[in-house]
Amino acid sequence: MQLYICWKLAVPALTHHLSLLERYPPNPQDDLQAWDSADEYLLQSLVASQLDPQRPILVLGDQFGALSCALAGSHVSVVNDSYVSHKAIEHNLNRQGLAQVQLLSPLDDWPQQPQLVLGRLPKQLSMLEFYLAKLKPLLAPDSLVFFAGRDRDIPERAEALLSRYLGPTDRLLGWKKARAFVSRSDGKAPLPQPAPLSWPLEGTDYQLVNHANVFSRQSLDIGARLLLANLPQGRFDRVIDLGCGNGVLALMMASQYPEARYQLVDESYLAVASAKANMAGNLPTVAADFIANNCLDGFERASADLVLCNPPFHQQQVVTDHIAWQMFKDAFKVLRQGGQLWIVGNRHLGYQIKLSKLFGGCQVVATDRKFIVLKAIKRRTS
């Protein structure tokens, strides 16, 4: 079996589906395409007829299904840290009538001896190191590893990490502001998987574990710090930490209200794993669920007393507020009448306007030069 890298050769059979892809979750105000030149580079660099249908293909970091849809029908496994990306891939495969692929999280078992690995270079070096350390022991001598990314998004040390963790690596020519690297295993013993970062939470006896790719994994982010200094007071039976990251907001609420039930929700599988480790390691008797999800999809209406939220203002590399808006709308649905949504965000994002529109008003709880903490109470049922 031989695979060819022919970056100048367009392969219509692998790229014709790109114009049919949709971003996910759907956003009517969004006219952005669901693929970029790095996806095209990966697909236009393969001669599909040389692939062995009996051997696995491993795809890492496919965002909306550009790679998954092209290779559907082959023995394909797709690894992504994003639950939303998994839903996007399912959506686009179904929309185009294509066979489903195996969807895996970074913590799942990956297929052995893939003939081909196609990967999107993550912006976070910790995620790239995680990928490479887990990938090396799985490679066969003839496995071909192909990573690509947009020039502006490629970590500075990406090529060095590919060589260090895998083996001989070639940098291919740039194309449409994208860059690709081809690696093969050097046959040496794999380097160990870097351990999650762990650090003490100031002012407590708690230790926080942070897997690769978790937001602000090296220290407590300043937005969360402001909310932690102004946590809600009252009676709460069911609390949701929406976009929980490492779970620090729920953890500190649980230290004050240990009898409540907590649901920690994030679209990142590694964030959810971090939150689970932190609750189990610091407050093991607290009742808590840990859920990878798209905001609060599938949650029971009017069932929660409090939602805490430190919303993202980007999806992948695109700055947007539609995810925050979806979080606010989902929180409104899930809160009981009289329930509260507490958020922290950058002051310039103007979240108080959206909350006032949705809840009929909101209150400024705290503010500093950069961040603002807002409280909204559900006073109506619809």
Automatic annotation (TrEMBL):
Pfam families: MTS, RLMG_N. Keywords: Cytoplasm, Methyltransferase, rRNA processing, S-adenosyl-L-methionine, Transferase. Residues 206-375 form the Methyltransferase small domain. PROSITE patterns: N6_MTASE (PS00092). The keyword S-adenosyl-L-methionine applies. It catalyses: guanosine(1835) in 23S rRNA + S-adenosyl-L-methionine = N(2)-methylguanosine(1835) in 23S rRNA + S-adenosyl-L-homocysteine + H(+). Its EC number is 2.1.1.174. GO terms for molecular function: 23S rRNA (guanine(1835)-N(2))-methyltransferase activity; nucleic acid binding. SUPFAM superfamilies: S-adenosyl-L-methionine-dependent methyltransferases. It comes from the Bacteria. Residues 20-184 form the RlmG N-terminal domain. GO terms for cellular component: cytoplasm. It is found in: Cytoplasm. Its main location: cytoplasm. PANTHER family: RIBOSOMAL RNA LARGE SUBUNIT METHYLTRANSFERASE G, RIBOSOMAL RNA SMALL SUBUNIT METHYLTRANSFERASE C. Belongs to the methyltransferase superfamily. RlmG family. Specifically methylates the guanine in position 1835 (m2G1835) of 23S rRNA. This is Ribosomal RNA large subunit methyltransferase G. The gene is rlmG.
